[in-house]
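Listing S7. Sequence submitted for prediction.
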Amino acid sequence: MAQWEPRIIVIACHWCTYQGADLAGSLRYSYPPTVHIVRVPCSGRVEPEFIAEALKKGADGVYVGG
């Protein structure tokens, strides 16, 4: 039986968090395949409905970074 791994959605601000994620990729760091990064123009514009929808569609957690 396979070990359970959580499905995480990362909502990353284009100006802050996403640049760190992009740098990590440039340095050849990798993310687990269960982490999905979604770039948004600004984390301040993330509506609560976006988070609720991600959870409703099967995400185990949502991280909003700004």
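Caption to Listing S7: primary sequence and predicted structure tokens for the chain studied. The longest helix spans residues 17-26. The chain has a mean pLDDT of 91.
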